[in-house]
Amino acid sequence: MFEKILIAxxxxxxxxxxxxxxxxxxxxxxxxxxxxxxxxxxRFADEAVCIGPPSSAESYLSIPRIMAAVEITNADAVHPxxxxxxxxxxxxxxxxxxxxxxxxxxxEMIRKMGDKITAKDTMIKAGVPVVPGSDGLLGSVEExxxxxxxxxxxxxxxxxxxxxxxxxxxxxxxEEFEPAWDSARQEAGAxxxxxxxxxxxxxEEPRHIEIQIAGDQFGKVCHLSERDCSIQRRHQKxxxxxxxxxxxxxLRHRMGAAAIKAGEAIRYEGVGTVExxxxxxxxxxxxxxxxxxxxxxxVTEEVINYDLIxxxxxxxxxxxxxxxxxxxxxxxxxxxxxxxxxYNDFRPNPGKITSFHSSKGxxxxxxxxxxxxxxxxxxYDSMIAKLICRAQTREECIVKMQRAxxxxxxxxxxxxxxLHKKLMQSEAFKKGDFHTGFLNTFEY
Length: 444
Ligand code: MV4
What we know:
Dna Ligase, domain 1, D-amino Acid Aminotransferase, Chain A, domain 1
């Protein structure tokens, strides 16, 4: 087992990782920018190293600065958390070259899943269902238009280097094709330095349902059931839950089996997520694979009663996984509390939290790095807390969440709490009747 893990991250996930390390008897090193001097991850780690100024590029995204912190503290492993360098294959490679264990998959796996066409092609070969579309990159606008005509509009243009919606366009008719093509290429080229585009049939009103998987160094892959992440805005998730109100036992088994195939196809090592689009007929299609721990891993932890960070560390240390699939025994919902004003176009609202009281009580979990007096810096992600409730049934879980949201007090900055209160009271949400477009028309 590792003796000392350096956590190359900040905020609630850094704390989350420190907690598990302590329980496992592993020493921890926090790294921080000068904007995070007063952060709890700095206080709760065994050691802390300042790695630079507030800007992410000169701190949490700087591979040389993080490797310097590894070197001076003698850490034998690095946990990247999510965001920042978590899916940076070069970082994983540098760690390996230095003889430091990167807690996550190999650089090859990260690279393969980071390129969307390669990922999709890998899944086709593995027998995982994918959205019908072009066989790889489009060579020209004419080729794209011909394919669109053959499969029928609407279609979607996607960037192979993409993710998170960048370089993505819906095309409803032949007239719109060329302008959409031009702007998608332009946007992808500017954002990723790669303007490769492919085309897919547009799936209308899909749900975003993802399967958590775990794979060990011995080639064994298992699944830990699904999370429904359809409640999102501009590709930022706001609410996640497990199990999905849309998924029955049969679909869960089929999606689980497909996710295992996906993991086995690349001999996946670590915990990961296979994202699917699910249409109204319950057809599901591979979308992307995330090769990191995700923000919403907590809902899975709650329903299967399992520490996913511990599992990640054990896998990285070469310990075998149990090899069985896990199915939800409870219901869990997570509301992301962001320092954003939902009544002002979700404008980020950094600043001083003058008073803070987090919800408590049976079935309530709050993962957060903030406290009364904490100043939310303007430089990073605006998430300040994750409020997770669990109960025997979905109905009870929603009621518990309503109660927990009433108790959740943040003063000094605007947050997404009022929006969550409205959502938890909405009839459509209560019925489980929503898709990825839900928030576009939700009135609150
Ligand atoms: C799609 C789609 C419909 N049809 N692909 C959005 C993020 C990117 N990774 C893939 N995305 C989508 N791909 C086809 N063929 C709809 C989306 C999509 C979406 C997916 C998941 C969650 C929220 C979304 C919001 C808008 C569009």
